[in-house]
Amino acid sequence: MPERSQISRYYDDRQQHLLADYVHSNPRTASAIRHALSQLPASTSSILDIGCGIGWSTHELARRRPRATAIGVDLSPQAVATANRLFGSDAIRFLVADARMADQVPAGLFSFVALLDVYEHIPVADRPALHRLLRDRLAPDGTVVVTCPTPEHQAFLRRQLPDSLQPVDEDVDEAALWLLARDLGGDLVQCNVREIWPDVRYLHATVSRSPQRTRRRPGVRLDGALESVRQRARRVERRLQVAVTAHGYLLPRRPDRPTIVVVAPNEYSYSETFIRSHMERLPFSVRFQYGGNFPISWEDGSPIMPGLAVTRWRLSRAVETGLRLPDRSIASECLARAWRRRGVSAVLAEYGTTGADLLAACRRAGLPLLVHFHGFDAHHRPTLERYAAGYRAMFEYASAVFVVSSEMYRQVIALGADRERVVLNPCGVDLDLFRPPTTPDRRATFLAVGRFVEKKAPHLTLLAFAGAHKVHPECRLAMIGDGPLLGSCRALATSLGIAASVDFLRPQPPPEVARWMQRSLAFVQHSVHAQDGDCEGSPVAVAEAQACGLPVIATRHAGIQDEVADGQTGLLCDELDIESMQRHMIAVLDDRQLAVQLGSAARERAVACFRNTVHIERIARALDCAMAGRPLDRQLLTPALTPV
Q1: Helix (H), strand (E) at residue 158
Q2: Could you report the per-residue pLDDT of 501-528, keeping only the tens digit for each?
Q3: How far is the C-alpha of 584 from the C-alpha of 571, rounded, in Å?
Q4: Which of 71, 96, 551, 592 is the most buried (most CB within 10 A)?
Q5: Reduced to 3 DSSP states, what percent helix, strand and coil does the chain have, rounded to the nearest 5?
Q6: Please, which residues bridge with residue 447 across strands?
Q7: Chain segment 376-424, per-residue pLDDT in tens
Q8: List of residues 6+ apart from 393 with CB closer than 8 A
């Protein structure tokens, strides 16, 4: 069973997801709150919301009973801090408390207690303690509402989506709820199964001590509606000075700073952590657009262009030739007008292809364009052929072109970029999140993080690991990510006889990736040049691993050569040289002190060369120069990292 500190840290790491659920209305959470509202007696004078998260449910309950006092408790300090900023008032308080420890929960009698998506996260062994707490804190005629997933849904998650489970996820059935009611000296007056999504069912239950209360029928009329998405978004912007996207990006709103727009092809991609860092950390008021190289939506999902223009633009994108339909000018004009209406001062295009497609709109709007290359956009041959003319025009107009490796620096100049506008700026790392463990517990585990695609060659990593496994059968390989090669890699692991020693993990949030790095022995990645020319830029996971004090075992490939000092912070081999990678893996298994020495030097290099603050500062300075109409500062043209 996880320790309480581990559980608290897990919920601390989920604040961005909880904010996204609040602003964009997660159906599961909204359904639970509506159930609680439907059971809220008119006579309620005091409310206790256990496991309140960032306070959405506490706020909605208190909004219906403005004369009642409301207290929300949660074991996550960060959640409580956010709740107080969002909803704290004279009538609503939020406190850090573990509901299993009676002395941490405020004393007094509460007429209404909410346990919304909480009861299943209480270990079965701790339920009696929670029941005693509720019995002592619940008024003689009090009500307790409980929502939780059905055992069938929990079984589905354990079978199909085990990574979606929380540190504690116990089954709760009607019998368990009857036991709760008995221990509280009340009755289970309602227990319904609600379908939230197709095949996703939750229990909505009510326990009452009031003898007059009768069993309610399903579908009872709700006591008012929840606040609208717009109201919730405005509250977050006003009180937290951020806007929240559906996937939890926190976009800063700084009225005293210029507004920039970051444009990326995808609304969300777990592997594009560098784009998220740009959006959340640049010292400007940031807007976000997505929907392809030419965007169609703002960060809140609202359309950029009128419906007809969107339809015609989508039709033009479906054309397979290099030609564009005449409505390209219409789309560019719509985009330019949208930027002007929102007061945008500069455009940061993620990927060279995005920058090329935005060129016409930037010209129409008279806005500076800064373009960030990342990998395929500088090397993928079909892309370079398609965008040859577009890149040349873009390089002529762009105020700055960012690249992440020395190889990419040489490549974009060869493609036509002016070296006086090219900024070599390797991707940075959050050194507070990605850090060595306080108590070293390095297991004989190799870790790989990244998409299962050709240029990352996960199958070659598996082949090298298979050789090391023959010498050290106790070692394991954990591979975090997904992609088109995942299925074939699973099959390969089975055919090599190592399936029992390989963990294929779904994409993980950065805090979980950091924890895997902190308990692994070494990071492995056998990157290669793909047949179509595609290759890495500056792999963020490699820098993150070094920041965690992990030696990196990888190939002499693209930006990896800039990041890893061979023989000092890691061990490199040539592309496709599986035997050498295998020997390197065996070397750190044979000599754990070697792994420690390499890892210690890797952390020092990460601190010296891969600070995210430096990466962001260089982009910010280039944006300031562009918005002021000045050439780039000379310091920006000095590489931030000298290849090793």
Answers
A1: helix 151-160
A2: 999 998 888 888 998 999 999 999 999 9
A3: 6
A4: 551
A5: 45, 20, 35
A6: 478, 523
A7: 899 999 999 999 999 999 999 999 999 998 889 999 999 999 999 999 9
A8: 356, 359
**Count of all residues that appear for the chain in the document:** 644
- What does the alpha-carbon distance between residue 305 and residue 330 come to, in Å, rounded to a whole number? 9
| Backbone phi, psi, residue 196, to 5° | -85, -55
Task: Say if residues 92 and 114 touch (Cβ distance below 8 Å).
Answer: no
Q: Which two structure tokens, joined as six digits, stand for 378?
A: 């500088």
CA distance 352 to 402: 9
Give CA separation, 630 vs 370, 399, 558, 622, in Å: 13, 9, 32, 9
150/162 Cα distance (integer angstroms): 16
Strands in 476-480's sheet, in edge-to-edge order, are 502-505, 476-480, 445-449, 522-525, 552-555, 570-573
Residue with tokens 């006003």, as numbered in its chain: 238
The number of angstroms, rounded, from the C-alpha of 315 to the middle of its chain's C-alpha atoms is: 32
pLDDT (tens digit per residue) in 367-377: 999 999 998 89
d(CA 384, CA 488): 29
Cα 55 off chain centre by:
21
Helix/strand number for the chain, H first, E second: 25, 22
> For residues 251 and 246, what is the distance between their CA atoms, to the nearest angstrom?
12
Name the DSSP letter for residue 251: E
Give every CB contact of residue 564 below 8 A, 6+ residues apart in sequence. Answer: 542, 546, 552, 554, 570, 572, 602, 644
Q: What is the DSSP letter of 519?
A: T
Instruction: Calculate the CA dihedral of residues 622, 627, 630, 631 and round it to 10 degrees.
Output: 40
C-beta atoms surrounding 169 within 10 Å: 16
| Spatial separation of the C-alpha atoms in residues 7 and 10, rounded to whole Å | 5
Neighbours of 138 (CB within 10 A): 23
Q: In the structure encoding, which two tokens stand for residue 307, read together?
A: 């419906």
Token pair for 407: 């190889």
Question: 476 is written with which tokens?
Answer: 């394991």
Residue 234's φ and ψ, nearest 5 degrees, are -65, -40
Gap between the Cα atoms of 434 and 413, Å rounded: 33
Q: Give pTM, 2 decimals.
A: 0.82
How many Cα atoms within 13 Å fall on the side-chain side of residue 62? 22
User: Coil, strand, or helix at residue 613?
Assistant: helix
